[in-house]
Design brief:
- The chain folds into two domains: 108 residues, ATPase, nucleotide binding domain (Nucleotidyltransferase, domain 5, 2-Layer Sandwich), CATH 3.30.420; 84 residues, 2-Layer Sandwich (Nucleotidyltransferase, domain 5), CATH 3.30.420.200.
- It is 28% helix and 29% strand.
- It is built from five helices and ten strands; from the N terminus they run E-E-E-H-E-H-E-H-E-E-E-H-E-E-H.
- The strands form two sheets. It has a five-stranded mixed β-sheet, sandwiched between helices. Strands 8-7-6-9-10 form a five-stranded mixed β-sheet, covered by helices on one side.
Length: 223
């Protein structure tokens, strides 16, 4: 049956969905980033009740492992690990940018390069570059954007930029081959990718897995 619980709390919009063989059954979303931690478990419980399933029916749990919000990543990772440990089922992780790129590949089939962007404050973004088949051109990285960013790629390739971090880049990236697009992105796309990983037995160890922060987390001590 391959009933998988999919969790994404890496961005401003959190989402959970139940998927069966990659097909989304039910989904719930939360748009208040500060409320992700208190929203998540009640949302999962309601999702299971509405679908007629029990927690014990799950065969795997998948989560976006980052990059993204530091707090959000910890919330999603901790919840997913807890479910997998308690139920003794496989744990699946997926890069947030890969899920975004997959959504783009489904909606933009004729674009050479896909560049998802998550806001990392000021002019910095979490980003990566993928071909339309999701092969990686540039691995996930934290990048400060200026007018020369991606210039070598944009010389010969049409490139689509999308995601919350792309809005602030429109004014500085003006190459003819650059397109800034709005995409539909939700946790249902994680549900498709997690099923592929489930079929291939591409699981992550619960004990030693960590969020993919991509850059160091700094805190400031109040004076």
């Amino acid at each position: 049956m391959a009933l998988i619980l999919n969790i994404d709390t890496s961005t401003e919009k959190a989402g959970v969905c139940l998927s069966e063989k990659g097909r989304m059954l039910l989904m719930a979303e939360n748009h208040d980033q500060k409320d992700h931690s208190s929203w998540l478990h009640p949302a999962v419980r309601q999702l299971l009740e509405d679908s007629g399933h029990r927690l014990q029916d799950l065969q795997a749990v998948a989560v976006t492992a980052g990059p993204g919000s530091y707090t959000g990543l910890r919330v999603g990772m901790a919840a997913a690990k807890g479910f997998c440990y308690a139920l003794g089922i496989p744990f699946i992780t997926e890069n947030t940018l890969t899920v975004m790129a997959f959504a783009a590949s489904e909606q933009l089939p004729n674009i050479d390069l896909l560049c998802p962007m998550l806001d990392a404050r000021r002019m910095e973004v979490f980003t990566a570059i993928y071909k339309n088949d999701l092969s990686i051109v540039l691995p996930a990285t934290a990048m400060i954007i200026d007018e020369n960013s991606f210039s070598s790629y944009l010389l010969d390739h049409k490139m689509s930029f999308f995601g919350a971090g792309s809005d602030k880049c429109k004014q500085v990236i003006s190459a003819r081959n650059a397109a800034f697009v709005d995409l539909i992105f939700n946790v249902g796309y994680l549900g498709i990718l997690s099923f592929y990983r489930y079929l291939q037995h591409e699981f992550t160890g619960v004990a030693y897995s960590e969020p993919a922060y991509t850059k160091e987390f700094y805190t400031h001590t109040k004076k």
